[in-house]
Amino acid sequence: MKRREFLKSTTAIMGAAIVTGAPVAVFAEEPVRGGTLIWGHSETTQNLDMHQTGTASTGRLLQNVHESIVSADADFNIVPNLAASFEQSDDGLTYTFRLRDDVMFHNGDKMTSTDVKYSFERVMNPETGAVNFEVFNAVESIETPDDLTVIVKLETVNAPFLSRLAENGAGVVMPQGTGDVQGETPIGAGPFKFIRREFGNEVELERFDDYFGGPAYLDKVISREITEPTVRLTGLRTGELHMINDIPLDRMSEFEGNSDFQTVAWFPLNWDFVNFNHDFEPFKDARVREAFDLMIDKETLMQGALWGQGKTSASPSFPTSASYNDAISQRPQDFERAAALLQEAGYGPGDLKIVFKVTTNYPYHVDSAQIMLEWFRAGGVDMSIEQLTWSDWLSQVWVDKDFQVTMMNFFTLWEPDFLYYSLYHSTGGFNYRKISEPALDEMLERARVTVDTDARMAIYKDVQQYINENTLDVILWFRNGTIGAQPNVMGLDTVVQPNGSEMNFHKVWLKA
Known about the structure:
Layout: H1 3-11, E1 17-20, E2 36-41, H2 56-62, E3 70-72, E4 78-80, E5 83-88, E6 94-99, H3 113-124, E7 139-146, E8 149-154, H4 161-165, E9 192-198, E10 202-207, E11 220-225, H5 229-238, E12 243-245, E13 262-276, H6 286-294, H7 298-306, E14 310-312, H8 335-344, E15 353-359, H9 363-378, E16 382-388, H10 390-399, E17 405-411, H11 416-424, H12 438-448, H13 453-469, E18 473-485, E19 489-490, E20 509-510
Parallel strand pairs: 2-11, 2-12, 15-16, 15-17
Antiparallel strand pairs: 1-13, 3-4, 5-6, 6-8, 7-8, 9-10, 10-11, 12-18, 13-17, 13-18, 14-18, 19-20
Helix pairs in contact: 6-8, 7-9, 11-12, 12-13
Protein backbone atom coordinates (compact mmCIF):
# COMPACT_ATOMS: atom_id res chain seq x y z
CA MET A 1 0.00 0.00 0.00
CA LYS A 2 1.36 3.43 -0.89
CA ARG A 3 1.85 5.99 1.81
CA ARG A 4 -1.01 8.22 0.73
CA GLU A 5 -3.38 5.27 0.36
CA PHE A 6 -2.58 4.14 3.90
CA LEU A 7 -3.09 7.67 5.14
CA LYS A 8 -6.47 7.86 3.46
CA SER A 9 -7.62 4.53 4.87
CA THR A 10 -6.61 5.32 8.44
CA THR A 11 -7.52 8.98 8.76
CA ALA A 12 -11.04 8.18 7.69
CA ILE A 13 -11.69 6.26 10.89
CA MET A 14 -10.78 9.06 13.34
CA GLY A 15 -9.73 7.27 16.47
CA ALA A 16 -11.21 3.86 15.75
CA ALA A 17 -8.98 0.79 15.52
CA ILE A 18 -9.16 -1.53 12.54
CA VAL A 19 -7.80 -5.07 12.85
CA THR A 20 -6.78 -6.85 9.64
CA GLY A 21 -5.09 -10.09 8.75
CA ALA A 22 -7.02 -12.44 11.07
CA PRO A 23 -9.90 -14.69 9.95
CA VAL A 24 -13.25 -13.31 11.05
CA ALA A 25 -14.17 -16.63 12.68
CA VAL A 26 -11.61 -16.30 15.46
CA PHE A 27 -13.55 -13.48 17.08
CA ALA A 28 -16.37 -15.89 17.90
CA GLU A 29 -14.08 -18.24 19.83
CA GLU A 30 -14.24 -18.52 23.59
CA PRO A 31 -11.21 -16.88 25.24
CA VAL A 32 -8.84 -19.18 27.07
CA ARG A 33 -6.72 -18.36 30.10
CA GLY A 34 -2.94 -18.78 30.25
CA GLY A 35 0.27 -17.89 28.49
CA THR A 36 2.73 -15.01 28.49
CA LEU A 37 2.42 -12.25 25.91
CA ILE A 38 5.79 -10.88 24.75
CA TRP A 39 5.27 -7.28 23.64
CA GLY A 40 7.90 -5.35 21.68
CA HIS A 41 7.45 -1.90 23.23
CA SER A 42 8.80 0.88 21.02
CA GLU A 43 9.90 3.05 23.95
CA THR A 44 11.69 2.79 27.27
CA THR A 45 9.97 3.27 30.61
CA GLN A 46 11.31 5.77 33.11
CA ASN A 47 10.03 6.71 36.58
CA LEU A 48 7.29 4.17 37.36
CA ASP A 49 5.44 6.47 39.77
CA MET A 50 2.16 7.18 37.95
CA HIS A 51 1.70 10.45 39.82
CA GLN A 52 5.13 11.72 38.85
CA THR A 53 5.78 10.33 35.38
CA GLY A 54 5.28 12.64 32.44
CA THR A 55 6.17 10.11 29.75
CA ALA A 56 3.51 8.39 27.69
CA SER A 57 5.83 5.41 27.23
CA THR A 58 5.65 4.73 30.96
CA GLY A 59 1.97 5.59 31.25
CA ARG A 60 1.16 3.13 28.48
CA LEU A 61 2.58 0.31 30.60
CA LEU A 62 1.19 1.56 33.93
CA GLN A 63 -2.30 1.66 32.40
CA ASN A 64 -2.31 -2.06 33.21
CA VAL A 65 -1.14 -1.62 36.82
CA HIS A 66 -3.30 1.27 38.03
CA GLU A 67 -6.91 2.42 37.99
CA SER A 68 -8.39 5.91 38.36
CA ILE A 69 -11.36 6.94 40.44
CA VAL A 70 -13.22 7.80 37.21
CA SER A 71 -12.48 7.07 33.57
CA ALA A 72 -13.64 8.10 30.10
CA ASP A 73 -15.70 5.94 27.76
CA ALA A 74 -15.25 5.71 24.00
CA ASP A 75 -17.06 9.04 23.54
CA PHE A 76 -15.02 10.68 26.34
CA ASN A 77 -17.95 10.82 28.72
CA ILE A 78 -16.78 10.60 32.33
CA VAL A 79 -17.93 7.34 33.92
CA PRO A 80 -17.40 5.70 37.33
CA ASN A 81 -14.42 3.38 37.77
CA LEU A 82 -12.98 2.92 41.26
CA ALA A 83 -15.93 5.04 42.26
CA ALA A 84 -19.24 3.22 41.95
CA SER A 85 -20.91 6.59 41.44
CA PHE A 86 -20.23 10.30 41.77
CA GLU A 87 -22.23 13.49 41.99
CA GLN A 88 -21.54 17.19 41.75
CA SER A 89 -23.32 19.89 43.75
CA ASP A 90 -25.41 22.48 41.96
CA ASP A 91 -22.86 25.21 42.68
CA GLY A 92 -20.06 23.08 41.20
CA LEU A 93 -17.98 23.24 44.38
CA THR A 94 -18.54 19.80 45.94
CA TYR A 95 -17.85 16.37 44.45
CA THR A 96 -19.02 13.25 46.26
CA PHE A 97 -17.57 9.88 45.27
CA ARG A 98 -19.17 6.61 46.44
CA LEU A 99 -16.47 3.95 46.17
CA ARG A 100 -16.74 0.36 45.05
CA ASP A 101 -16.45 -2.06 47.95
CA ASP A 102 -14.68 -4.81 45.99
CA VAL A 103 -11.40 -3.12 45.02
CA MET A 104 -8.20 -4.82 46.16
CA PHE A 105 -4.68 -3.51 45.78
CA HIS A 106 -1.81 -5.69 44.65
CA ASN A 107 -0.35 -5.66 48.18
CA GLY A 108 -3.49 -7.36 49.54
CA ASP A 109 -5.09 -4.26 51.06
CA LYS A 110 -8.71 -3.37 50.35
CA MET A 111 -9.25 0.12 48.95
CA THR A 112 -11.02 2.61 51.21
CA SER A 113 -11.63 6.35 51.21
CA THR A 114 -8.38 6.78 53.15
CA ASP A 115 -6.43 5.60 50.10
CA VAL A 116 -8.24 8.07 47.85
CA LYS A 117 -7.57 10.94 50.23
CA TYR A 118 -3.93 9.92 50.49
CA SER A 119 -3.55 9.73 46.71
CA PHE A 120 -5.22 13.06 46.00
CA GLU A 121 -3.25 14.85 48.71
CA ARG A 122 -0.05 13.28 47.43
CA VAL A 123 -0.66 14.78 43.97
CA MET A 124 -1.49 18.14 45.59
CA ASN A 125 1.71 18.21 47.66
CA PRO A 126 4.42 20.23 45.83
CA GLU A 127 7.10 17.99 47.33
CA THR A 128 5.71 15.02 45.40
CA GLY A 129 6.58 16.53 42.05
CA ALA A 130 3.36 15.29 40.49
CA VAL A 131 2.92 16.39 36.88
CA ASN A 132 -0.81 16.97 37.41
CA PHE A 133 -0.58 18.98 40.62
CA GLU A 134 -2.60 21.86 39.17
CA VAL A 135 -5.69 19.62 38.88
CA PHE A 136 -6.14 20.14 42.61
CA ASN A 137 -5.28 23.86 42.77
CA ALA A 138 -8.82 24.80 43.78
CA VAL A 139 -9.30 22.04 46.36
CA GLU A 140 -10.22 23.34 49.80
CA SER A 141 -10.66 20.03 51.62
CA ILE A 142 -11.00 16.28 51.18
CA GLU A 143 -13.30 14.55 53.64
CA THR A 144 -13.81 10.84 54.32
CA PRO A 145 -16.99 10.45 56.41
CA ASP A 146 -16.84 6.66 56.01
CA ASP A 147 -14.75 3.99 54.28
CA LEU A 148 -16.62 4.24 50.99
CA THR A 149 -17.28 7.99 50.71
CA VAL A 150 -14.95 10.77 49.60
CA ILE A 151 -16.08 14.40 49.51
CA VAL A 152 -13.91 16.92 47.68
CA LYS A 153 -14.72 20.57 48.27
CA LEU A 154 -13.37 23.31 46.00
CA GLU A 155 -12.78 26.96 46.80
CA THR A 156 -13.67 27.99 43.24
CA VAL A 157 -15.32 26.24 40.31
CA ASN A 158 -13.02 23.98 38.29
CA ALA A 159 -15.15 22.91 35.34
CA PRO A 160 -12.77 20.23 33.97
CA PHE A 161 -12.06 18.70 37.40
CA LEU A 162 -13.78 15.35 36.75
CA SER A 163 -12.34 14.92 33.28
CA ARG A 164 -8.85 15.69 34.56
CA LEU A 165 -9.23 12.90 37.12
CA ALA A 166 -9.86 10.50 34.25
CA GLU A 167 -6.65 11.22 32.36
CA ASN A 168 -2.93 10.62 32.82
CA GLY A 169 -2.69 9.61 36.44
CA ALA A 170 -4.27 12.54 38.27
CA GLY A 171 -7.08 10.32 39.55
CA VAL A 172 -4.98 7.18 40.11
CA VAL A 173 -5.51 5.71 43.58
CA MET A 174 -2.56 4.09 45.36
CA PRO A 175 -2.49 2.29 48.72
CA GLN A 176 -1.93 4.65 51.63
CA GLY A 177 1.75 5.17 52.43
CA THR A 178 3.19 3.57 49.29
CA GLY A 179 4.43 6.73 47.62
CA ASP A 180 8.08 6.09 48.45
CA VAL A 181 8.16 2.78 46.56
CA GLN A 182 5.99 3.62 43.55
CA GLY A 183 8.88 4.84 41.39
CA GLU A 184 10.59 1.44 41.38
CA THR A 185 7.87 -1.05 42.38
CA PRO A 186 4.44 0.36 41.50
CA ILE A 187 1.48 -0.95 43.48
CA GLY A 188 -1.99 -0.41 42.10
CA ALA A 189 -5.42 -1.97 41.65
CA GLY A 190 -5.24 -2.77 37.93
CA PRO A 191 -5.56 -6.10 36.08
CA PHE A 192 -1.82 -6.80 36.22
CA LYS A 193 0.64 -6.44 39.06
CA PHE A 194 4.23 -5.34 38.67
CA ILE A 195 6.86 -8.08 39.13
CA ARG A 196 10.20 -6.71 37.96
CA ARG A 197 12.04 -4.36 35.65
CA GLU A 198 15.43 -4.53 33.99
CA PHE A 199 15.90 -0.86 33.21
CA GLY A 200 16.07 -0.21 29.49
CA ASN A 201 15.40 -3.86 28.72
CA GLU A 202 12.11 -5.31 29.91
CA VAL A 203 9.27 -5.13 32.42
CA GLU A 204 7.30 -8.11 33.70
CA LEU A 205 3.65 -7.92 34.74
CA GLU A 206 1.57 -10.76 36.19
CA ARG A 207 -2.19 -11.30 36.25
CA PHE A 208 -3.88 -10.02 39.42
CA ASP A 209 -6.59 -12.55 40.19
CA ASP A 210 -8.43 -10.22 42.60
CA TYR A 211 -8.94 -7.46 40.03
CA PHE A 212 -12.39 -5.96 40.52
CA GLY A 213 -13.08 -6.11 36.79
CA GLY A 214 -12.42 -9.85 36.70
CA PRO A 215 -9.07 -11.59 36.17
CA ALA A 216 -7.23 -11.15 32.87
CA TYR A 217 -6.80 -14.09 30.49
CA LEU A 218 -3.02 -13.83 30.20
CA ASP A 219 -0.78 -15.13 32.95
CA LYS A 220 1.85 -12.51 32.23
CA VAL A 221 2.80 -9.64 29.96
CA ILE A 222 6.48 -9.02 29.31
CA SER A 223 7.26 -5.66 27.78
CA ARG A 224 10.56 -5.72 25.93
CA GLU A 225 11.77 -2.21 25.29
CA ILE A 226 13.05 -2.10 21.71
CA THR A 227 13.38 1.42 20.31
CA GLU A 228 15.14 0.33 17.11
CA PRO A 229 12.34 -0.27 14.55
CA THR A 230 14.18 -2.89 12.50
CA VAL A 231 15.06 -4.96 15.57
CA ARG A 232 11.45 -4.78 16.72
CA LEU A 233 10.21 -5.93 13.32
CA THR A 234 12.72 -8.78 13.19
CA GLY A 235 11.51 -9.99 16.59
CA LEU A 236 7.96 -10.16 15.29
CA ARG A 237 8.94 -11.93 12.09
CA THR A 238 11.00 -14.58 13.89
CA GLY A 239 8.25 -15.22 16.45
CA GLU A 240 10.34 -13.93 19.37
CA LEU A 241 7.64 -11.29 19.94
CA HIS A 242 3.88 -11.81 19.95
CA MET A 243 3.17 -8.20 19.10
CA ILE A 244 4.82 -4.85 18.54
CA ASN A 245 3.54 -1.32 18.55
CA ASP A 246 4.79 1.19 15.98
CA ILE A 247 5.40 -0.93 12.90
CA PRO A 248 8.38 0.70 11.14
CA LEU A 249 7.00 3.53 9.07
CA ASP A 250 8.64 2.40 5.85
CA ARG A 251 7.54 -1.24 6.22
CA MET A 252 3.77 -0.92 6.52
CA SER A 253 3.25 -2.16 2.96
CA GLU A 254 4.68 -5.54 4.00
CA PHE A 255 1.93 -5.97 6.59
CA GLU A 256 -1.18 -4.66 4.88
CA GLY A 257 -3.07 -7.69 3.62
CA ASN A 258 -0.40 -10.12 4.88
CA SER A 259 -2.24 -13.11 6.36
CA ASP A 260 0.86 -14.13 8.34
CA PHE A 261 0.30 -11.23 10.72
CA GLN A 262 -2.47 -9.11 12.17
CA THR A 263 -2.30 -5.33 12.01
CA VAL A 264 -4.15 -2.69 13.96
CA ALA A 265 -4.21 0.87 12.60
CA TRP A 266 -5.83 3.96 14.05
CA PHE A 267 -5.73 7.73 13.93
CA PRO A 268 -4.49 9.58 15.83
CA LEU A 269 -1.80 8.12 18.06
CA ASN A 270 -0.03 11.35 18.96
CA TRP A 271 0.81 14.84 17.77
CA ASP A 272 4.28 16.30 17.23
CA PHE A 273 5.67 19.79 17.50
CA VAL A 274 8.92 21.78 17.35
CA ASN A 275 9.72 23.52 20.62
CA PHE A 276 11.60 26.73 21.36
CA ASN A 277 13.15 27.58 24.72
CA HIS A 278 11.42 30.88 25.42
CA ASP A 279 14.13 31.81 27.92
CA PHE A 280 16.82 31.63 25.20
CA GLU A 281 17.41 35.20 24.03
CA PRO A 282 16.68 34.81 20.28
CA PHE A 283 13.43 32.96 20.94
CA LYS A 284 12.12 35.62 23.28
CA ASP A 285 11.36 37.44 20.03
CA ALA A 286 8.21 36.15 18.29
CA ARG A 287 9.66 37.22 14.94
CA VAL A 288 12.49 34.70 15.30
CA ARG A 289 10.09 31.93 16.25
CA GLU A 290 7.89 32.75 13.25
CA ALA A 291 10.94 32.76 10.98
CA PHE A 292 11.79 29.21 12.02
CA ASP A 293 8.18 28.18 11.40
CA LEU A 294 8.36 29.67 7.90
CA MET A 295 11.41 27.57 7.04
CA ILE A 296 9.51 24.29 7.54
CA ASP A 297 7.46 22.63 4.79
CA LYS A 298 5.12 20.63 7.04
CA GLU A 299 3.60 18.36 4.39
CA THR A 300 6.98 17.48 2.89
CA LEU A 301 8.35 16.85 6.37
CA MET A 302 5.43 14.57 7.21
CA GLN A 303 5.90 12.60 4.00
CA GLY A 304 9.64 12.32 4.51
CA ALA A 305 9.76 11.49 8.22
CA LEU A 306 6.45 9.63 8.64
CA TRP A 307 6.14 8.15 5.16
CA GLY A 308 2.79 9.91 5.01
CA GLN A 309 1.39 8.07 8.01
CA GLY A 310 -0.26 11.07 9.57
CA LYS A 311 -2.01 14.32 8.85
CA THR A 312 -0.66 17.84 9.21
CA SER A 313 -2.46 20.11 11.67
CA ALA A 314 -2.08 23.62 13.04
CA SER A 315 -3.87 22.59 16.24
CA PRO A 316 -2.96 19.95 18.85
CA SER A 317 -6.58 19.53 19.98
CA PHE A 318 -8.00 16.04 19.51
CA PRO A 319 -9.35 16.06 15.92
CA THR A 320 -12.92 15.17 16.94
CA SER A 321 -12.98 17.46 19.98
CA ALA A 322 -15.37 20.39 20.15
CA SER A 323 -12.30 22.43 21.13
CA TYR A 324 -10.53 21.83 17.80
CA ASN A 325 -10.03 25.11 15.92
CA ASP A 326 -10.18 24.34 12.21
CA ALA A 327 -10.05 28.04 11.32
CA ILE A 328 -6.31 28.31 11.89
CA SER A 329 -3.76 27.03 9.39
CA GLN A 330 -0.07 26.28 9.16
CA ARG A 331 2.28 28.80 7.62
CA PRO A 332 3.57 27.79 4.19
CA GLN A 333 7.33 27.59 3.67
CA ASP A 334 8.64 31.07 2.80
CA PHE A 335 12.41 31.62 3.06
CA GLU A 336 12.18 35.23 1.87
CA ARG A 337 9.72 36.18 4.60
CA ALA A 338 11.76 34.22 7.16
CA ALA A 339 14.94 36.09 6.24
CA ALA A 340 13.14 39.42 6.50
CA LEU A 341 11.85 38.58 9.99
CA LEU A 342 15.30 37.51 11.18
CA GLN A 343 16.77 40.72 9.75
CA GLU A 344 14.14 42.79 11.60
CA ALA A 345 15.08 40.98 14.79
CA GLY A 346 18.76 41.78 14.23
CA TYR A 347 20.02 38.46 12.89
CA GLY A 348 21.74 38.27 9.53
CA PRO A 349 22.84 35.10 7.71
CA GLY A 350 24.99 32.95 9.98
CA ASP A 351 24.40 35.08 13.09
CA LEU A 352 22.19 32.52 14.78
CA LYS A 353 24.05 29.47 16.05
CA ILE A 354 21.48 26.93 17.26
CA VAL A 355 21.67 23.40 18.68
CA PHE A 356 18.69 21.14 17.91
CA LYS A 357 18.39 18.47 20.65
CA VAL A 358 16.47 15.38 19.57
CA THR A 359 15.94 11.99 21.22
CA THR A 360 16.79 8.68 19.60
CA ASN A 361 13.80 7.24 21.50
CA TYR A 362 11.77 8.41 18.50
CA PRO A 363 13.77 7.54 15.36
CA TYR A 364 11.43 9.57 13.19
CA HIS A 365 12.32 12.63 15.28
CA VAL A 366 15.94 12.14 14.26
CA ASP A 367 14.83 11.90 10.62
CA SER A 368 12.71 15.03 11.04
CA ALA A 369 15.57 16.99 12.59
CA GLN A 370 17.90 16.04 9.78
CA ILE A 371 15.40 17.22 7.18
CA MET A 372 14.74 20.47 9.03
CA LEU A 373 18.47 21.01 9.48
CA GLU A 374 18.85 21.53 5.73
CA TRP A 375 15.98 24.03 5.66
CA PHE A 376 17.30 25.98 8.64
CA ARG A 377 20.76 26.15 7.10
CA ALA A 378 19.22 27.27 3.81
CA GLY A 379 17.50 30.01 5.82
CA GLY A 380 20.82 31.31 7.13
CA VAL A 381 20.83 29.57 10.53
CA ASP A 382 24.01 27.85 11.73
CA MET A 383 22.30 24.71 13.03
CA SER A 384 23.70 21.49 14.50
CA ILE A 385 21.92 18.38 15.85
CA GLU A 386 22.62 16.72 19.19
CA GLN A 387 21.12 13.24 19.52
CA LEU A 388 20.17 12.21 23.08
CA THR A 389 19.00 9.00 24.67
CA TRP A 390 15.50 9.17 26.15
CA SER A 391 16.89 9.44 29.68
CA ASP A 392 19.27 12.23 28.69
CA TRP A 393 16.51 14.10 26.81
CA LEU A 394 14.25 13.93 29.85
CA SER A 395 17.05 15.08 32.12
CA GLN A 396 18.33 17.91 29.95
CA VAL A 397 15.20 19.15 28.20
CA TRP A 398 12.25 18.17 30.39
CA VAL A 399 13.79 18.62 33.83
CA ASP A 400 16.68 21.08 33.44
CA LYS A 401 15.15 22.94 30.46
CA ASP A 402 18.63 23.07 28.96
CA PHE A 403 17.95 23.35 25.25
CA GLN A 404 17.45 25.84 22.44
CA VAL A 405 15.31 23.92 19.94
CA THR A 406 13.88 20.44 20.35
CA MET A 407 11.09 18.25 19.04
CA MET A 408 8.61 16.22 21.02
CA ASN A 409 5.35 14.37 20.70
CA PHE A 410 2.46 14.16 23.09
CA PHE A 411 0.00 11.35 22.95
CA THR A 412 -3.49 12.55 22.18
CA LEU A 413 -4.53 14.70 25.13
CA TRP A 414 -8.27 14.64 24.51
CA GLU A 415 -9.03 16.76 27.59
CA PRO A 416 -8.38 20.41 26.62
CA ASP A 417 -7.55 21.68 30.11
CA PHE A 418 -4.95 18.95 30.44
CA LEU A 419 -3.60 19.79 27.01
CA TYR A 420 -3.46 23.57 27.20
CA TYR A 421 -3.11 24.35 30.89
CA SER A 422 -0.38 21.74 31.42
CA LEU A 423 1.59 22.72 28.34
CA TYR A 424 1.01 26.46 27.99
CA HIS A 425 0.17 28.00 31.36
CA SER A 426 3.22 29.62 32.97
CA THR A 427 2.83 27.24 35.94
CA GLY A 428 1.78 24.18 33.91
CA GLY A 429 3.36 20.86 34.83
CA PHE A 430 4.36 20.18 31.19
CA ASN A 431 5.63 23.68 30.39
CA TYR A 432 9.25 22.74 29.81
CA ARG A 433 9.62 25.52 27.18
CA LYS A 434 9.39 28.29 29.83
CA ILE A 435 6.41 29.89 28.09
CA SER A 436 5.10 32.85 30.09
CA GLU A 437 2.28 34.74 28.42
CA PRO A 438 -0.03 36.64 30.84
CA ALA A 439 -2.79 36.93 28.24
CA LEU A 440 -2.68 33.18 27.66
CA ASP A 441 -2.66 32.46 31.41
CA GLU A 442 -5.79 34.57 31.77
CA MET A 443 -7.62 32.64 29.06
CA LEU A 444 -6.66 29.27 30.54
CA GLU A 445 -7.73 30.30 34.03
CA ARG A 446 -11.00 31.70 32.69
CA ALA A 447 -11.72 28.41 30.91
CA ARG A 448 -11.47 26.56 34.22
CA VAL A 449 -14.26 28.57 35.80
CA THR A 450 -16.49 28.59 32.69
CA VAL A 451 -19.19 26.01 33.32
CA ASP A 452 -20.98 26.29 29.98
CA THR A 453 -19.31 23.75 27.70
CA ASP A 454 -19.74 25.68 24.46
CA ALA A 455 -18.33 28.84 26.02
CA ARG A 456 -15.37 26.91 27.44
CA MET A 457 -14.61 25.31 24.07
CA ALA A 458 -14.70 28.76 22.48
CA ILE A 459 -12.00 29.90 24.90
CA TYR A 460 -9.82 26.96 23.93
CA LYS A 461 -10.22 27.91 20.28
CA ASP A 462 -8.95 31.37 21.18
CA VAL A 463 -6.05 29.72 22.98
CA GLN A 464 -5.10 27.85 19.79
CA GLN A 465 -5.33 31.07 17.82
CA TYR A 466 -2.97 32.76 20.29
CA ILE A 467 -0.47 29.88 20.15
CA ASN A 468 -0.55 29.96 16.37
CA GLU A 469 -0.28 33.73 15.94
CA ASN A 470 2.60 34.00 18.41
CA THR A 471 4.36 30.81 17.25
CA LEU A 472 4.78 29.56 20.80
CA ASP A 473 5.55 26.17 19.22
CA VAL A 474 5.36 24.86 15.67
CA ILE A 475 2.56 22.28 15.56
CA LEU A 476 3.37 19.73 12.86
CA TRP A 477 0.97 16.79 12.60
CA PHE A 478 -1.04 13.96 14.09
CA ARG A 479 0.58 10.56 13.61
CA ASN A 480 -1.15 7.24 12.90
CA GLY A 481 -0.83 4.38 15.37
CA THR A 482 -0.04 0.80 14.36
CA ILE A 483 0.28 -2.63 15.99
CA GLY A 484 1.60 -5.79 14.38
CA ALA A 485 0.85 -9.18 15.95
CA GLN A 486 1.07 -12.90 15.46
CA PRO A 487 -2.15 -14.64 14.29
CA ASN A 488 -2.67 -16.28 17.70
CA VAL A 489 -3.00 -13.01 19.61
CA MET A 490 -6.71 -12.55 20.26
CA GLY A 491 -8.62 -9.52 21.50
CA LEU A 492 -6.46 -6.98 19.69
CA ASP A 493 -9.52 -4.82 19.12
CA THR A 494 -9.60 -4.16 22.88
CA VAL A 495 -5.97 -3.10 23.33
CA VAL A 496 -5.99 0.53 22.20
CA GLN A 497 -7.83 2.75 24.65
CA PRO A 498 -10.22 5.54 23.57
CA ASN A 499 -7.54 8.23 23.85
CA GLY A 500 -5.53 6.43 21.15
CA SER A 501 -2.32 6.26 23.15
CA GLU A 502 -2.78 3.92 26.12
CA MET A 503 -2.81 0.14 25.80
CA ASN A 504 -4.58 -2.34 28.06
CA PHE A 505 -4.16 -6.12 27.96
CA HIS A 506 -7.02 -7.10 30.27
CA LYS A 507 -9.06 -8.78 27.50
CA VAL A 508 -6.17 -10.07 25.36
CA TRP A 509 -5.62 -13.83 25.13
CA LEU A 510 -3.42 -16.28 23.28
CA LYS A 511 -4.90 -18.93 21.03
CA ALA A 512 -3.11 -22.26 21.44
